[in-house]
Amino acid sequence: MSSVTLSNVKRAYDGAWALNDVSLKAPDGQVLALLGPSGSGKSTILRLIAGLEPLDGGEIRLGDETVSTPSHTLPAEARRVGMVFQDFALFPHLNAGANVAFGLDKLGRAERDAKALQWLDRVGLKHRAGAFPHELSGGEQQRVALARALAPAPRAVLLDEPFSGLDPVLRAELRDATLATLAEARTTTLFVTHDAEDALQVADCLAILKAGKLLQSGPPREAYDRPASIDAAAALGTINLHRGRVENAAVTTPFGAVAAAHLAQGASADVAVRAEALRLAPGEGARVLSVRPHGAHDLVRIEAQGLVWRALIPARTALGETVSVEIQTAGAFTFSA
Amino acid sequence: MTRNALAARGANIDGVALVAALATIICAAPAIAVIGLALARSDGGADFGGDLLANGAFGTGALMAAGGLGAIVFGAASAALVSLCRFPGRGLFEWLLVVPLAAPSYILAYAYASLTWAGGVSPLRIEGFWGAAFIYAVGLYPYVYLAARAAFVSQSLGALEAARTLGAKPGNVFWRVALPMARPAIAAGGALAMMEIAADYGAAHHFGLTTLSTAIFRAWYAHGAPSMALQISAVLLLGALVFLILERRARGRASFAAALTRAKPAPRYQLAALPALGAVALCGGLVASGALLPLAWLLRLALLHANVEDVAGPFLNSMLLSGGGALVTLALAAAIAVAARRANAFGKASLYAAAAGYAAPGAVIAMGALALFGLAREAGWIGGLGPALAVTALIWTYAARFASAGVQPIDAGLTRLSKGLDASARTLGAGPWRRFARVDLPIAAPSLAAAALILFVEILKELPATLILRPFNFDTLAVKAYSYASDERLLEAAAPALLIFLVGLAPILILTRGIGQVGRR
User: Fold this and answer.
1) How many angstroms separate the CA atoms of A221 and B80, rounded?
2) Which stretches does DSSP call E strand in A29-148?
């Protein structure tokens, strides 16, 4: 088990930056989530750490060992970094037990088989050891892939969108089980997702990426409460935007004022307000355009002075045709425009 | 639904079922006749029949083992090299390696015989059992190559990368993951190559070997024992069907090994100088010995000994017979393809019958057709086997033997005719004829043309059935090449052999046009 450190990492495909100057650290034994839309470079980070691709700039360290520089790439097979692929990539010609045993070939046969079985047991699949990948369900395949990656006691384990191919019910269940297995193994983990909920639920530490750039990294609570930019704020939920001027240390929006003490008087500023930071009550101030159920909440579209915002409020809150709007400061941010 | 519409639907289903049933009978009747009559007429020739059958079975088995093993090793090795490695000329070899499919084994046998025998240039003589095994290996390895290459190219990049993250070095990744994942496809290709070896008559005959195919001819012509020929045919047919089943099984397993999702092809492994030289030598050697060398040699001989008059008649006969046979077979294949889409019992039966016909050697189908015409004559339905009836029997044999080869490209064309297209044409007011003429036909036309070309060439190359059933004094290119070669007049055999080779190149070039584009980075 080792920490994983990226320093000023660069990677280009066909002349375009897939990663541009990204520095990150996954501390020893912790779970780092890489969050971003497709094309943000998050999967590229995993492939670089695994040693499946060379680096164009910067360096990657596993613990104290430098494993990737532009001039040297320690081969994937020599890194002891486990990886769970998006399509799980189980070997179709081997059964579940043999898949898990694949990386244990330095052990004797008896020991290897015992250890593979032990790992299958940990993910609750001991009884499926003889099944071939095409006989396993999607969730079972994911668990076999996780056991396979963890069995050789890797220095770090990388998970590429590990829950994306699964149905929503299974997804939450498997996420918890995976987290428990990883916690038990105490392995440094990096996992890639485009789902904010996955990231917030699983990660000790969060890295938000967009278009090959690192927008923000830190604990999930901090990233949620103090986003570094509009994009970073948008990565963790629905936000509402407005551009205005700073007057008396605040920016006034059609729905109310937002504090902007750190910005200069008269400066142009962008306001970002999380949908869940809007409180609605029967009254005057904004018109209700629509109310739609959204899980445990209702998503309400409100309009004032031609601007439409979205608010997430407790489901079945009684509202009239017009509402009063309160912007909670914890979920409202201003940025220099 | 109105009564009329119901009636129309009913008639439609009956029509397709009827056509499917007819197609099943056409494809299966000769094979059924062989087995039925072999069981019914187990008399005559018992004294020497046992030996002939045993020797033939041994010869065919040994050739399948030796030639098949060679084809599997050559095909799998070359497929692995061009799919997984980088070396000079890789892109060129990727499609050149298919070219030996153009020449049937007997053409290669004649070319090598003249190359290495009297008047030839090589001191190493290609002859006897090992000569035939060599020709099968270098001529039929593309069956394995195509299947293995498709498997290697479609392999999940993730599985290969996963093996590396689990500590496997590149060589290990190949032996422990890539090769085992391709094994079912290699087995399927190997089974196809072995079925071709079992079906071959011309090469085995030229090298003087006793196989089941040559034994059929010997029983028929030398011993005048038709019932024995039928019995040997039945054994050969059953053996071919076993391999057909093995091939289908292996192909089914191969589909498990194909990737579910595939983002991008695996980057190819750069070979160092010495291994790269080895790769070029292997691929170059295979292309040269399976195609270029015999082609060049036949070309040289044909130019030296060109006799246009001698070849013109057989050429015309070949064109007419192959053209007519291809049209009939195409119609049959189209009927089977349409019926099979219904996925009912009739459609499936026609598909299986066609597959069985394709697996059965030409000599066997011809024996079956001959036996059926014999029965019809005994019943007094027809007279002797005159030219017209002989050509009918021959075309029937071609249709039963090759329909399956036409079904697959036609089916691929039909796949592009989605229900949505048909529905949208209907909402735009097009009736059945207009839909057929303006939508179905134009979309399926390229597939039909490809199928017709494949069938034309298969029929042109066919030797044993043509030998058995052709009308008296009716020579095709294949027959002409065969009879010259049988008389050891290999110089004269070169021109018809060359023509068959060149015509055979056409579908290969069409087949390989798309090959380079698949999985290219």
Assistant:
1) 51
2) 31-35, 57-62, 65-69, 72-73, 81-84
Q: Are A68 and A83 in contact (CB under 8 A)?
A: no
Q: A197 CA to chain B: closest CA distance, Å?
A: 25
Nearest CA in chain A to B257: A92
User: B213, B198 in Cβ contact below 8 A?
Assistant: yes
Residue B407, C-beta contacts closer than 8 angstroms, at least 6 positions apart: B333, B336, B337, B340, B351, B354
Placement of tokens 């036949």 in the chain:
B298
| pLDDT at position B5 | 42
For residue B10, what pLDDT is reported?
A: 42
What's the pLDDT score for residue B166?
92
The pLDDT of residue B518: 38
Is the CB of residue A152 less than 8 Å from the CB of residue A82? yes
Q: Which residues of A touch B261 (CB under 8 A)?
A: 86-87
Q: Which residues of B touch A105 (CB under 8 A)?
A: 167
Q: What is the mean pLDDT of each run of 10 residues along chain B (521 residues)?
A: 42 67 87 86 60 92 96 96 92 92 92 78 80 95 92 82 89 90 90 92 93 91 83 90 86 65 66 93 96 92 82 91 93 85 76 85 90 85 80 92 86 74 71 76 82 89 92 90 89 90 84 49 29
ipTM above 0.90, yes or no: no
Distance CA B81, CA B517 (A): 17
Please state, in angstroms and as integers, the Cα–Cα distance from residue B73 to each residue in A101, B86, B126, following that order: 29, 20, 20
Chain B residues whose beta carbon lies within 8 Å of the beta carbon of residue A79: 165
CA distance B256 to B32: 34
Q: What pairing do the DSSP bridges indicate for beta strands A4-13 and A239-247? A: unpaired
pLDDT value at residue B119? 62
% chain B with pLDDT above 70: 88
Cβ-Cβ contacts under 8 Å for A224 (sequence gap 6 or more): A200, A236, A237
Report the largest interatomic distance among the alpha carbons of chain B, rounded to a whole angstrom: 80
Q: Please tell me the distance in Å from A27's CA to the nearest CA on chain B.
A: 21
B127: its two tokens: 């002859």
Q: How far apart are CA B353 and CA B68, in angstroms?
A: 25
Separation in Å, CA of A176 to nearest CA in chain B: 24
A69 in the Ramachandran plot: left (φ > 0), alpha (ψ -120 to 50) or beta? beta
- The b-or-e profile of B210-244 (16+ CB within 10 A means b, else e) is bbbbbbbbbbbeebebbbbbbbbbbbbbebbbebb
Rounded distance between C-alpha atoms, residue B182 and residue B400, angstroms: 32
Q: Identify all chain A residues contacting B167, using CB atoms and an 8 Å cutoff.
A: 77-78, 80, 103, 105-106, 152
d(CA A153, CA B452): 59
Structure tokens at A112: 């290897």
Q: How many CB atoms lie within 10 A of CB B255?
A: 12
This prediction's pTM: 0.81
Chain B CB contacts of A94 below 8 Å:
180
Contact B256 A85 (CB under 8 A): no
Minimal Cβ distance to B165: which of A83, A93, A134:
A83
Interface of A with B (CB under 8 A): 50-52, 75-83, 85-94, 102-103, 105-106, 132-134, 145, 148-149, 152
Strand A57-62 to strand A4-13: parallel, antiparallel, or no bridges (unpaired)?
A: antiparallel
Q: From the CB of residue B417, how many other CB atoms can be counted at a distance below 10 Å?
A: 17
A85–B158 CB contact, under 8 Å: yes
Q: Which residue has the higher pLDDT, A74 or A337?
A: A74
Token pair for B288: 């040269």
Residues of chain A in contact with residue B259, where contact means CB-CB under 8 angstroms, are 87
**What percent of chain A lies above the pLDDT cut of 70?**
100
pLDDT for the residue B257? 60
